[in-house]
Amino acid sequence: MALKKVLTIAGSDTSAGAGMQADLKTFQELDTYGMVALAAIVTMDKETWSHDVTPIPFDVFNKQLETAISIGPDAVKTGMLGTEEVIKRAGEAFEESGAKYFVVDPVMVCKGEDEVLNPGNTDAMIKYLLPKATVTTPNLFEAGQLSGLGTLKSIDDMKKAAKIIYDQGAQNVVIKGGKALDQEKSYDLYYDG
């Protein structure tokens, strides 16, 4: 059986704990062939622990996508995309690729932060990515942004957000709650209508 091919359209995390580096490690563990279209580079100030996100020039980003699409991915996953133009292109690339699955991880903040990197990206994700998503995997903050509910404070809030995101077009919604609601337990929520 031929190796399945997965394209991640994501940012680069220099620490390799997230972004395309983490995606490629996961793909390897799952015996799939990983490809990357790099959308942004994330660096961190070692003194303040604040993040800096530098988008890849769009023409370079687009050439990466064209190359990966020509290889024929079976699935496409998004991560940090950075700009509305890149978000729109990522949705188009999924359709052009002929891939069966589209995983949308709507990265809006760097880990440990709670300010949206680019507020216009939320609307772009709702318009260009969610209607095509086989599954979307927002964390609590991202689910609050996508649903328009703001801060999610309970499992009931998670359920409301999941339904709204599902109604925006995602076939399956997995809200990653982690320990944000309860320091003793971790809550994730799956919704498929």
Automatic annotation (TrEMBL):
<protein>
    <recommendedName>
        <fullName>pyridoxal kinase</fullName>
        <ecNumber>2.7.1.35</ecNumber>
    </recommendedName>
</protein>
<dbReference type="Pfam" id="PF08543">
    <property type="entry name" value="Phos_pyr_kin"/>
</dbReference>
<keyword id="KW-0479">Metal-binding</keyword>
<dbReference type="GO" id="GO:0009228">
    <property type="term" value="P:thiamine biosynthetic process"/>
</dbReference>
<dbReference type="GO" id="GO:0046872">
    <property type="term" value="F:metal ion binding"/>
</dbReference>
<dbReference type="InterPro" id="IPR004399">
    <property type="entry name" value="HMP/HMP-P_kinase_dom"/>
</dbReference>
<keyword id="KW-0067">ATP-binding</keyword>
<keyword id="KW-0460">Magnesium</keyword>
<feature type="domain" description="Pyridoxamine kinase/Phosphomethylpyrimidine kinase">
    <location>
        <begin position="13"/>
        <end position="192"/>
    </location>
</feature>
<comment type="similarity">
    <text>Belongs to the ThiD family.</text>
</comment>
<dbReference type="GO" id="GO:0008902">
    <property type="term" value="F:hydroxymethylpyrimidine kinase activity"/>
</dbReference>
<dbReference type="GO" id="GO:0008478">
    <property type="term" value="F:pyridoxal kinase activity"/>
</dbReference>
<dbReference type="GO" id="GO:0008972">
    <property type="term" value="F:phosphomethylpyrimidine kinase activity"/>
</dbReference>
<dbReference type="GO" id="GO:0005524">
    <property type="term" value="F:ATP binding"/>
</dbReference>
<dbReference type="GO" id="GO:0005829">
    <property type="term" value="C:cytosol"/>
</dbReference>
<keyword id="KW-0808">Transferase</keyword>
<dbReference type="InterPro" id="IPR029056">
    <property type="entry name" value="Ribokinase-like"/>
</dbReference>
<dbReference type="InterPro" id="IPR013749">
    <property type="entry name" value="PM/HMP-P_kinase-1"/>
</dbReference>
<keyword id="KW-0547">Nucleotide-binding</keyword>
<keyword id="KW-0418">Kinase</keyword>
